[in-house]
Design a protein that fits this description.
Elements lengths: L2 H10 L15 H37 L5 H18 L3 H15 L19 H10 L14 H18 L4 H10 L6 H10 L1 H17 L15
């Protein structure tokens, strides 16, 4: 959630903790002070969450893409942090999504699989358009546009969120869905795949091990400078 969202939530909420008395019973200055305090607390919480996520992303990139230049990792990392913070409410979901990116492409925006999956999130073109429409995003992009970091990351995050919804928040089943692709949307089918498909089982194990490994790695410095090159 960005700063504008926090401002909106403070303005819209009349019943925040400590601000629940009817407006007629408060002085304007007290109301303003209460809202300001609430905004500060929310912003501090966001800043702390973002700092932790920056550290996690930089650690993940140091493991999965050690040969990338610092400038490239810094640029890609800054994009991942921004889109991850905007797309996911929980730390666990954000970090799992980053682990997906690491395992799918090793954070390579130019990656292309033998079956045609494209970019840092390894998105199939047909899946990309389906999820873009599902998430209310523009879908008038070309296959080549999926090599662009922001487009690919946005659709990848959108897809993983939708998969989590489809399997009632089960991270394991959502990972199986991501590995299998767009058309494994049926919950029973995903559950069956979890029992019979060794590839998907290994995928979940790889993601879990990567998440554990990330915590012990020295972080890189991330900033917004750089490019997709």
């Amino acid at each position: 959630m960005n700063c504008f969202s926090y401002v909106s939530s403070v303005i819209a909420s009349i019943t925040l903790v400590g601000c629940s008395k009817p407006a007629a019973e408060r002085k304007l200055t007290q109301s303003n002070e209460c809202a300001a305090n609430q905004y500060t607390e929310l912003l501090d919480r966001q800043n702390n969450e973002q700092k932790e996520f920056i550290k996690f992303v930089s650690n993940a990139m140091a493991i999965a893409a050690p040969k990338h230049s610092e400038a490239k990792n810094a640029y890609l990392g800054s994009q991942i942090v921004r889109i991850g913070m905007d797309s996911f409410e929980s730390r666990d979901e954000r970090e799992t999504w980053v682990a997906i990116l690491a395992n799918e492409s090793r954070f390579n925006p130019k990656a292309k699989s033998p079956v045609g999956a494209i970019g840092i999130g390894q998105i199939m073109p047909k899946s990309a358009k389906w999820y873009a429409e599902k998430c209310g995003l523009p879908s008038d992009f070309s296959d080549e546009d999926l090599y662009l970091t922001e487009i690919n990351l946005t659709i990848s995050a959108c897809a993983f969120k939708e998969m989590l919804k489809n399997v009632n928040g089960s991270k394991t089943l959502a990972l199986i869905s991501y590995n299998a692709g767009q058309f494994s949307k049926d919950l029973k089918r995903v559950e069956q795949m979890a029992n019979i498909n060794n590839e998907t089982a290994n995928y979940v194990t790889k993601i879990s091990r990567f998440l554990e490994k990330v915590k012990d790695t020295k972080p890189l410095k991330l900033d917004a400078k750089g490019s997709d090159k």
